[in-house]
Amino acid sequence: MEGQKKLNRQMPYWKQIIYVLTIGWIVIWIYRTVLTPIYPIISEYFGGATDAQLGHISSFYFLGYVCMQIPSGILVDRVGKKQILIPGFLLFSLGALVVGVAQNIGLVFIGSVLAGLGCGTYYGVAYSLTSEYVPVSKRSLSTAIVNSGTAIGSGLGLVSSSYLVGTGVLPWQALIFVTVMLILLATVMFFYFIRIENPKTINNTKADVKKQSSLKELFKPRMISAYILYFSTLYTYYLIDTWLPNFLETEKGFSGTSVGLASSLVFFTAIPGALIFSRIADGIPKKKVQLIILLEIVAASVLLITVTTTNQTILVVGIMAYGFFGKLAVEPIIISWLGESAPKGSIATMYGVFNFFGMSASVIVPSLTGKISDLTGSKIYAFYLAILIIGIGTSLFYLINRFMGEKKKILD
User: What interhelical angle do 81-101 and 172-193 show, nearest 10?
Assistant: First the structure.
């Protein structure tokens, strides 16, 4: 406690929040990625699970996660961030523990749903904290720093799993138990560093409460365009997150530790990309829409080259380029851009709705990709579908915002 008080005197609260939230994402993404490079080992352990069943592990987790988005956002706005986040992470640890001790694939699905429900409390807390406490001029960059925890956690999960489990050093359950310990440590950290809010500051005036509950505020064209784009962006990202290691191993000739290393490049190259483009976005606040569209187009183009090439060097360069220009680069800009028009008193609710639509893709893509693989014998068609979805989502985002921009000019 004394050390935390000393830190409070030395560092502004908004900077503490950035570091704490970054660590939270690291822990979440270690859990999310630790199983994907070792699907064949998990399949064998459970008596020959199909690709579709393996995809269900991620889909059930994300089902729980998505179902919690809107309820947790509303609860955060009404009850408080810390009061919702800590019970959520305790449930997350319980779900992960159930996965680790499971003796059949059905129990893994149950544990995955519980873990997803617990994790579902995090997003609204994280980005309502950054929206409320981080200075506007530093918001895109700060969000990118927080999101770098996604890249670090993903890389750690992929590399540790492919090396330690893929080479037979540890059973797959051991890494799940380590993750449970990390989740509990993160929960302790949240307890010490995130402030408890005064209920009087949470319960707003009647006018604010009325505004909180207004669906119209959450479904303006600007908001809808962001929901569509985020779904498109996350569809591709979670395809890569859940199936890229298996795709590289079964269709591109990678093996052993190289699978995890190659897959993790997406996440490690994302860190400089996110920091660079977020800094640019903070410098040109009125050009964020154009920057978002440019990044989406470049990411889709790079991904197409990556999955169609037969040259492993080009493939690895393509993976790195997608990381640099893709989801983790564009997401902080979308989040900060959307936060500029968030309804007063409903920031967490707005981000909950935003993430609900985006993360719906994460429920669909693991199982759908497994089905496509079982039916066609290849996952490349799933990548083609993802690229098409990015194209459609980016086009709709552009058209809606252009129309709204022209309408505003006419009204002015």
Answer: 170
CA distance 237 to 33: 12
Q: Would you place residue 51 in the very low, low, confident or very high pLDDT band (cuts 50, 70, 90)?
A: confident
C-alpha neighbours within 13 Å on the C-beta side of residue 406:
5
pTM: 0.77
Alpha carbon of 124 to those of 15, 89, 137, 347: distances in Å?
18, 14, 21, 8
DSSP secondary-structure letter at 168? T
The structure tokens listed for 113 are: 């749903």
Q: What number of residues does the chain have? A: 412
Q: What is the pLDDT of residues 164-181, one digit of tens each?
A: 887 888 899 999 999 999
Residue 236 in contact with residue 390, Cβ under 8 Å?
yes
Sort 257 into a burial class: Cβ within 10 Å, 0-12 / 13-18 / 19+.
Answer: middle
User: Are 397 and 229 spatial neighbours (Cβ–Cβ below 8 Å)?
Assistant: yes
The pLDDT of residue 2 is above 90: no
Structure tokens at 173: 């359950």
Percent of the chain with pLDDT over 90: 42
pLDDT the model gives residue 260: 73
Tell me the torsion sign for CA atoms 108, 110, 112, 118. negative
Place of tokens 């998505």: 66
| Sign for the pseudo-dihedral over CA of 18, 22, 23, 27 | positive
3-state helix, strand, coil in the chain (%, to 5): 85, 0, 15
Question: Which is nearest to 202 in space by CA: 191, 193, 194, 212?
Answer: 212
